[in-house]
Amino acid sequence: MALFGQTIICGFLMGGVYAVIAIGMTLILGVMKIINIGHGHLMMVAMYVCFALFTSLGLHPYIAMFVAMPCLFGIGYLLQRYSIHRVRFVDTILPQTQVLLTLAIGLVFVEIIRVIFKSDFRSVYTPFSSKCLYIGDMSISLPQLISFGIAMAFVAGLHILLTRTDFGRSIRATAQDLDAAKYMGVDALRVSSLTFGLGMALAAAGGALLLPIFYLFPDIGVPFTIKALIITILGGAGSTVGALSGGLVFGMAESLGAVYWAPGYKDVVGFVIFLLVLLFMPGGLKTVIKR
Amino acid sequence: MAKKSWFLPAILGIVAIALPPFLGGYFQHILILVMMWVAMATGWNLLGGYCGQASLGSAAFFGLGAYGAGMLYLHWGISPWWGVIAGPLLAIVVAIPIGLVTFRLRGGYFVLSMLAVCETIRIIFLNWVEMSAGPLGIVIERTWGMEKLPYYYMVLAIAALSLYVVYRLMKSKFGYYFVSIREDQDAAEGLGIPSTKYKMYALIPCAGIIGLAGAFYMNYMAFIEPNTVFPLIISATMILSVMLGGPGTFWGPALGATIFVLLSELLRAFAGPVIGTIHYLIFALILVLVIMFLPNGIAGEGDKIKRLFRGKKPVYVGGE
Questions:
Q1: Residue A165: which domain range?
Q2: More confident call, B173 vs B15
Q3: What is the ipTM of this complex?
Q4: Looking at the whole model, is its pTM more than 0.90?
Q5: What's the count of helices (H) and strands (E) in chain A, helices before strands?
Q6: CA of A258 vs chain B CAs: smallest distance (Å)
Q7: Partner-chain residue, chosen from B182, B243, B318, that has the shortest CB–CB distance to A100
Q8: Which CATH architecture has domain B24-309?
Q9: Share of chain A above pLDDT 90, in %
Q10: For residues B242 and B254, what is the distance between their CA atoms, to the nearest angstrom?
């Protein structure tokens, strides 16, 4: 029983961090109608920013996060404004040119990082990396708990931003109906660039929160892109609440799979969920929550 | 016109058959790689370029083809050359259920779900040691040792076969159906084209061709392990070759793959000693620039390139 509880708690805490990354992807998907394949790769860039700050200045990743997020926000803004948006109106043979472009951009960042930092595995050891809290027989890793708390704070902040502010309303309007939003005077290019930046900043936050509990190498992005995609589909495309609940469910399922099946197949669990959702619940958790 | 259409391929074919015996081993090796990538890019183009279902997980078929050949030897000691049949077969058998599920998705979702499929297959091959020898990989003995010429003619035949298959398919009714699905899936369905069925008809030869290239890779390289045959970079390279040459054109992928391999070798030879892995960075940059400025590839944007060379201002469509 202790093992089961432990597994659930661990997965739940991890799921919160996944949710932050996935919400970034969902936002971009909602407003720009494209899947950002470079999502995990850019998250990796944020992790390296934190890592560099940690090794050079000794900044803790949770503080370095507030440097990495504006960096990634800027990168995202510029990418959408000067690169991805350009391609949108070009008449091409392939319909998914924008999606392939995000892949290419992601690869560019991976290779830049590889040239600078080499392919070695690295990790950040913080003073409380190995501290635990105990509830009965179950232990809770302190950095995971803190990461979860910060992640939830970001989700709450984003929720307030989307529902209470003018900018949030224009994001939601653009996501619902681009043309109608334009007629109401929303600057669609500005909104989509800022949203891409925001999505990247959330991915950066997720990456920084992962850093104390995870390791780091340039190709780390792909599994996280896939996880974010699975969570997005599990939660229902374009829904923040769906992405949050999807992230938590996914984290627990992955953790259960790692303990009761085999650690090596941890990532296959996500794929099985992905198939089941597609086959039996194509709308995702969103449809269940609304009912 | 009719005369011209067979003239260039015939000359290319004669050169491809007659030239290699006079070249050194290194250049033969490069030509083998060129032909392998020509076959793979042509296969990818059938599903991605003509049918519009750009897949980011085509390395799955490559790896399955390679493992189809390798596992024959590993388990039963059968010559991996039988993998030329078993590899594509395995790739097709796995591709069918994958297609049935992933073709429910459109656009970006499809692209990413294929990536997820490929990663999953890689993880299964890494962890299921009894089936695939896991990360140890499979080592075979090369049939012709250091001799490269027989391998070259094998892979030349594979490339020619893949070009022929795609050519015949695109000249038939199927070709028009594929293009109609790419242009507007809803309209195609409205006209009575069962889109999932025809996407499957594009996927099966695509998986078969890429699997065949994989089976050849096993025989030629004599060593495979999951991380060398299933990585993202193989799928991305197929996309790069096709995007560079021109998606949805017949000669585009072959042209793109040739440029890609030659450029890759040049960069590795000259830039490699200076800054390690910089040739990958240059590729990724080329891919970004090609998608941004030549989204229809060299073959698809011939007019724009011609105008550029004549010193006239190129007209960029769209883009503010």
A1: 2-290
A2: B173
A3: 0.80
A4: no
A5: 13, 4
A6: 13
A7: B243
A8: Orthogonal Bundle (1.10)
A9: 13
A10: 8
